[in-house]
Amino acid sequence: MNQSTLLSRSFALLTFLATINFATAQQSIEIYPDSNQFNYANCTVPSTGSGSISGGADNFNSATDSIGIEIFWGDGSSSLDSVGLSEGGTTDYFYHNYTHTYTIAGTYFLFATATAANGIADTLDMDSAYITSSCVFVSGYTYMDANSNCSLEATDDTMANIPIHFYNGTSFLNMTYTDLNGYYNVSLPQNLTGVRVVAGTTSIWDTECPSAGEYVFNTTSSQSFDFGMECATNSVDHRVYHSISGVEAPGQCGVLSFVARASSCANQNATASLTLDPSVSYNGMISGPAPTTISGNTLTWNYSIQANTNGYSFGIVPKMSICTDTAAIIGDTACFHVSVTSDTVNPNNNEDTWCLIIDGPWDPNNKTVSSPDMEMNGNTAPDSKLTYRVNFQNTGTAPAVNVYILDSISNKLNLETFEVLASSHDMTPQLVDERVIRFNFKDINLVDSNANEPESHGFLIYSIEMKESLPIGTEIHNTAHIFFDYNAPIVTNTTVNTIYVAPNEPDPLVLQLTALDVSCLNSDNGALDLSIASGNPPYSFAWSNGETSEDQSDLPAGSYTVTVTDDSLLTATATAEIIEDRQFQDPVVGAITGPLSVQSWKPYSYVVTTPGQSEFEWTVSGGEILSTTSNTAEILWHAGPDGTLYIQEKDQHGCYGNDSTQVPILFVGIDEAVESGFRIFPNPSDGLITIEVLEITGNEKVEVRDLHGRLIQSRAITSNSTQLNLGNMASGVYNVILTNENGTTNRKLIFN
Fold first, then answer.
1. pLDDT per residue as tens digits for the range 492-505
2. Can you give the pTM of this predicted structure?
3. For 135-231, CATH number?
4. In angstroms, rounded to a whole number, what is the distance separating the alpha carbons of residues 699 and 677?
5. CATH number for the 510-578 domain, one of 3.30.530, 2.60.40, 1.20.1630, 2.40.50?
6. Using a CB cutoff of 8 Å and minimum separation of 24, what contacts does 118-123 make?
7. pLDDT for 322-358, tens place per residue?
8. Cβ proximity of 527 and 505 under 8 Å
9. Which CATH architecture has domain 3-131?
C-alpha cells in the first residue's frame, strides 16, 4: 500500500469507546463516539475510509452470544457484521474494523447500531464525512533568516518542528508541522477567501518574514509561503517529560526513560534530576548517558545544550533498567519525579511527576494521559491541559521501516492548542482530517524486539487543552492506532478523562489562644485573646466559664477552655491558663521614725528607715498627707480622738504588698478646727468603721470602692457620725469617697 492510499484511508478514521451501565441481571449495550467530523482529507473520488468501533455488553454470555454491528454510510448503503464478545467480568467487550468507499464527493452523515440476538440495541450517531473533489495545496519552508533579507538562501538553516496554522478568517481551519527539512505541505478546499497562514512562534523564535507575521490568500490555486525566523532571545527554554509508563511486577525489571529537550539561541549548561520511587531501584543504563551522580534514589545528569536553529534539540534521552522490589505490593502506587535546571525563559515546564500502579508486565503499545490535577481514576478539573503519551514497540521479526500513528482528537478538545512535546525518533505530525492527526515516523527502521528488545521501543508525547466550559461529567476518550509498515493497526487502550469538580473541602479549623496573666495577687484583670488561623465563618464560641464571646477580659487566675464551631460544623478546642506571675513579696519595712505625740492641725515629718522594693504608699487615719518622697512623708494631724500612720509597699505594676507597718498616734491638743472633710476610724479596720463628717450640708454621700473603681458600698450621710459594716469585703486597700456640694474628698482604707 502506497502513502497516498494510506492518507486516503485515514480521512474517516472513527474510533468509538463503550461505557457501561452496570445493573444486576439486566442486559444492556451502550456505545459512544470518540471523534466526530472529518474534513477535506481527500481531494479525489473514489475515496476509501477506514476505522473501528468497540463497545461493551452487560450480563451477556461471552461463549454463546454475539453482537451485530450495522453501519449506515449516508450514501444509501450499509454494512452488517457479527462480532463475538470477549470475557470481561460483568461487562463483556466487542470490537469491529470497517472500511467504506465513497464514489461521489459530498457530505455524508453516518450512524451505527449494535444489536444482540435478543433485540437489545444501542444506536450511535457518527456525525459526518466530508469528501471533496477539488483541493489546492499550500507548501513552504521555515528558515533562520541570518542576514534579515527575507529570502530563503542556500546558506540559511531550515527549521524543523515549527507549527503552521491555517485560519478561515478567525476560525481555525487546519494545521501541520514542518519536517526535518523545514518543509510543510497541506491540502485545503478550493475557493475559500481570506485564508490566513501563520507560523507558530515561541518564547525563543519570532517570525521576521513576512513582517505582518502571516500570509492572507484565496484558495483559487496552490500556493507556496516561506517564513523567515529569528531569535527572540538568547536564552534557553527547557522541557522535560517521561516516556515509559510501565512498572513491572514485584521482583521484575522494566524500562524507564525521560526526555529533556530545549529551544535555544545560545549554548547552555543544564542539570537533570530523576527521583525514583522507594519501591524501585536503578539497574543500569540501556542507552543514553549514564548519571553524573547517584545519591540514594536520586540520579543526576549534567549536560550541555547547544544553540540550534532547528526548532528544538534533545538535551539527553536516558533510557535505563529499573527493578521493582520483591516486597512491593501489586496495586500499590509508585511515583517518580524528573526536573531540569538552568531555564531562563519558562520554568513552568521543567518538571514532570507521574504515578503508576505496580502490576504485572504491561502492554508496550499503550496510551496514557496526565494532567497536573488529574486523579488516578481520570477525574480532571475543567479547562485543563491534557498530556498524551503513545508508547509503541516492534514485536515483529524484522525492523519496521516506517511507523505511523493515527490519533483521533476528541471534539471536546481545542485542536488549535495542540503541541508536540517530544518523541523518541524524528517524527512529523500531520492533520489528515479535521480531527485526525497522523504522526509519521518515516525511515525509523525500528529494530524488532527479538534482535534488540531495549531499542525496539518508541514513543510520542503531545499536549492539548480542553475546550472551555465543558459541562461537569463530560467524558473525553482517546484511542490511538499504531501502524508498522503495511501491517494491520495495533489499537491501544482507550484513555478516559471525566470533567470533575471536587467537592469543596472545608478549611481546617485552627485556633490560637493567648492568655494575659493577672497583674497582682488576688486580682481579676486577666484576659484571653482568641484568634482563628483557619476555618469557615461564621463561628460560635463556648467557654468553660459559660461565656459565648470570642475574647474575654477581667478574669481571675485559672484554667479556661473554649470550643469553637464553624459554619461547616467543624469543632476545635483550645485551653489556656491565666496565672498570677506578678505576686508581690512581703515587704521588709523598717520602723517609722517621727513624733508619736502630736498636736492637731500641725504638720510633722516621718521617715521609713529601710528602702522598699519599688515605692511606699502612705496612708493616715486622723490626719492628711501633705507630701511624700521615696521614704518620707509630711502629715497634718486632725483633732483625734486617735490617729494611725501606716505604709504599704507597691510594685511597678501597681500591686500592693501583703502587710503594712502601723504607728499609733497620740493627740495632745487641738489648735484649730478642721475646715472641711471627714475622717475614718478605725483604720485599718476589720469590718466596722465610723465616718465622721465635720460639716453636714444635707447632700453628703459616701462610697467605698476597690482600687479598680468598682463600687462596694454606698450610703447617704445624714449626721456627723455614720457607721458602715464592711465585714464581707476581701482584705486589701479601698478608697472611701465623700461627695457633697463642695466636691469630693478621698481617703484610703486598709481592711484586714
1. 888 999 998 877 77
2. 0.52
3. 2.60.40.10
4. 14
5. 2.60.40
6. 118/27, 120/27, 120/28, 120/29, 121/29, 122/29, 122/30, 122/31, 122/55
7. 998 988 888 788 888 898 886 566 676 788 887 777 8
8. no
9. Sandwich (2.60)
